[in-house]
């Protein structure tokens, strides 16, 4: 080829890159024809700052900031930005600028290119060609390898490392001594090292070139992804004498392309260098005259096909095209010649060794200033690997569909936004739809129950946004028109880079489970309503006769202002009963004050109950209102009244009699209207007899005595209490129990509960915390069995002869005057539940009424 300067300019305008030139101040001098063709802007429109209009608005500030930085520093620079194509679409480009200096080092021009990032592998192909051309010169090879913008290495046939170029050492920070042998492995990411070594052994065994991607540690400790490529060098006998390889930063793959542009700029006036460059570009390039006849093929084309220059002239270039693809390629070529528009097609080309590989062939016209076509340029890009990957993907997809169709679960594949794109056979059979119906909007809306559709859409949207596995329960219509409950589980699928590419969902029929849950829920609701309406008084749960008698007393005394003395063992709920009296009294809207008389120091109890004046004693820095004054108009509970010191009992008696008291340190009386409730777990009558409690105060407090029975005297209430407390503590813990094991219920019934309700609460709360499933159970070791104390002459009931059983029941009925339940009833004396005794009496034909007159 002998191109003139004009032809050189034409070829620069035709090279597959957008090139430009700016003056030293940054103002634009020219843009090549590729730039104008791509952007659709004329030279006049792109003059001055007009070229900025094709930069994406979101990228322009960053790009201009980088451009100013380059102009200021005078150093080469690059930036990635989106450029608008003539059809309005944007594509990412790598914009690279480099100064041209005169002999004094002064910048006389800025040259730049804008390169489509999707063609990044051209640089690596360029490197391999350069290495092939200068293989014979060790000095030049080392100089080039150390200079090229990529990490290069060489290994001997036995896989031992011969050298790593300077770029490699500069990047990793490892010296030649540190990286010698297998030391280079320390720069590979630990998670990637195994696959790198496996691939390297595979290449050594096969003797074939190979590549893979892995992370490489930079000298500052950070990791970046690299493309590792290795290729053997063989001698004339075909024996491998060296292995050469490159490690290319995937994020900066356009450096080699920039290198090519620099070579073109430096060698612009040289015809031989220009031809060498065209022959070196990593693509099969050919040129044709306007009528379609061949002008020439580049060296890459001849090397690949094995055809000499003369044989590829005329129609000879058609000979390597696969016979099955030639007709389609020629028809497409004629269409492009007629229309004058670029054209492209995929076809197979025969390699010099007779192997066919798939190529992507694209032809584009070159026009003169008048718009006439003066030449056609064509490139053929190897896409064999992509075609094989596509075919494998199709095979995998067919196999996957066969597998998913055989799975009894309903499986749906979704786009990242949730749009369904595929459903397996069970789904299609369930809905009586076809695969063509899957992408349609009514595939989902038409099958989901109308009452569930809005909730389903909201929950699905929220789950897709999170990007984590989730599940949704919904009703879906079957082909027979019936709706059944399904559990849809969604799981994201991500590619090797962690990008979300698909959602997979499985649908499981849970109709039977939902019905069982409904039945259980209804039973639980009914049981809770029974507890609430029949077995609860305020917060007191129970239906036993003993507790019912107590609640009847509370209902009668609550509306009055009578003083109530509540007695009972520790943990029976004395404070709870006092609160129930207050809530049912006319004072319910006023204060309820509880004072633990046994927890206050003797020296402070007067101040706590009645208050004190400022300066009344050391530390009394201000007036303090006592509990009685704070409870004015309401109710005060004096808990553990039996622990009140004797000196305070007279003061309390005065309050009960005269409804007034004096603060500590004051001589003035304070009148109060307070209802007094007292509680004790001790025997006050015995305390009076022992002189430890004032008799007159006892009678003042014992106006309306109420005794709370211990839990062992009301065993029939344990199932109700268990159900109520399990539900209560489960809600606090955020748990849900569907049932209670029968063994646990038996343990609770058999235990004597010395700590009464308080102990029961503690055991249940602890078990709720420890239970993992939806069934409530308790550790048997927590409830140590205790034998029931004997009551009178009656011994525990045993399953002996019928007459002995009858005799024992009649003795117990006689002692309890025919009463069955309660603390003094026959059931308690026999140590068996009331219901059991009722069944025994009925089966033995015993008349319990005959004992009521005894």
- The termini sit apart by 137 Å
Unreliable stretches (pLDDT < 50, length at least 5) are: 523-537, 786-800
Beta-strand portion reads 15-25%
Structural class, from secondary structure content?
Answer: alpha+beta
Query: Which radius of gyration do the C-alpha atoms yield?
Result: 48 Å
**Gross geometry:** elongated
Instruction: Kindly report the spatial arrangement of strands forming the biggest sheet.
Output: 2-1-5-4-3
Number of helices: 31
Major pleated sheet: 5 strands, antiparallel
Mean pLDDT comes to 84
Helical fraction equals 25-40%
Number of strands: 31
Description of the structure:
- With 854 residues, this protein is α+β, with helices and mostly antiparallel strands.
- 39% of the residues lie in helices and 23% in strands.
- The chain contains 31 helices and 31 strands.
- It has a five-stranded antiparallel beta sheet with strand order 2-1-5-4-3, sandwiched between helices.
- β14 and β15 (373-382) form a beta hairpin.
- α5 packs across α10 (255-266) and α26 (718-733) packs across α28 (756-770).
- The longest helix is centred in the middle third of the chain and has 24 residues, at 511-534.
- Mean pLDDT is 84; it is low at 523-537 and 786-800.
